[in-house]
Amino acid sequence: MDTLTPLARRSARVRRRPTCRHATIHVTTRHPTEFVDLTDRLERLVADAGVRVGILNVQTLHTTTAVVVNEHEPLLLTDFQALLEAAAPGDGRYRHDDTTARTVNVTDAERPNGHAHCRALLLPSSACLNVTRGRLLLGQWQRVFFVELDGPRERDLSVLIVGEGGQ
């Protein structure tokens, strides 16, 4: 059986203040499929918020993007891209791309991106990460990535940090 242990014993004199911060991260992508490492930006947001212990949630605001936690190793990122291509080929046939038949959510600047929507369905749109001792709690090789599936584009992510800071 697992037991929970406190991160640190609190002195009766130490007061903690609750903190809730929101930020938006803007990303400009340059490739149809791209992995953008957000880890350092997220760490700066945690530091700026002054949160010592809490939770950071980062979510994409787009239906053809994702947020994942994995290793930042170039060959592995190439493997991820190949896996996504195999799962939903860019040159495949998608009913979403038939703007003569589609009647919902069609814009003048519509681009054929059924493959990107299908790829996004396989990946999470957000990541919820623990904050301890004022830093993101990540494993040795873990990094947080924004995944572009329909680029190049201008994209935004919403970040919410909730927790306690020192006084």
Mean pLDDT: 92
What is the CATH C level class, in words?
A: Mainly Beta
**Would you list the SSEs in sequence order as H and E?**
EEHEEHHEEEE
- According to DSSP, the number of beta strands is 8
Strand order of the largest sheet: 1-8-3-5-6
Total domain count: 1
Strand content: 35-45%
CATH topology: Jelly Rolls
For the report, how would you describe the main beta sheet? Answer: 5 strands, antiparallel
What helical percentage do the residues reach? 10-25%
Uncertain spans, ≥5 residues at pLDDT below 50?
none
**End-to-end separation:** 35 Å
Overall spatial form = elongated
* Total helical segments: 3
Question: What is the C-alpha radius of gyration, as a whole number of Å?
Answer: 19 Å
Structural class: alpha+beta
CATH architecture: Sandwich
Relevant CATH superfamily: YjbQ-like
Summarize the structure.
By secondary structure, the chain is an alpha+beta fold. It is built from 3 helices and 8 strands; from the N terminus they run E-E-H-E-E-H-H-E-E-E-E.
Can you describe this structure?
The chain is α+β, with helices and mostly antiparallel strands and 167 residues long. 20% of the residues lie in helices and 37% in strands. It has a five-stranded antiparallel sheet, covered by helices on one side.
Reconstruct the topology from this structure.
Elements: E1 16-28, E2 34-37, H1 39-49, E3 53-60, E4 65-71, H2 74-87, H3 114-121, E5 126-132, E6 135-136, E7 142-148, E8 154-166
Antiparallel strand pairs: 1-8, 2-7, 3-5, 3-8, 4-7, 5-6
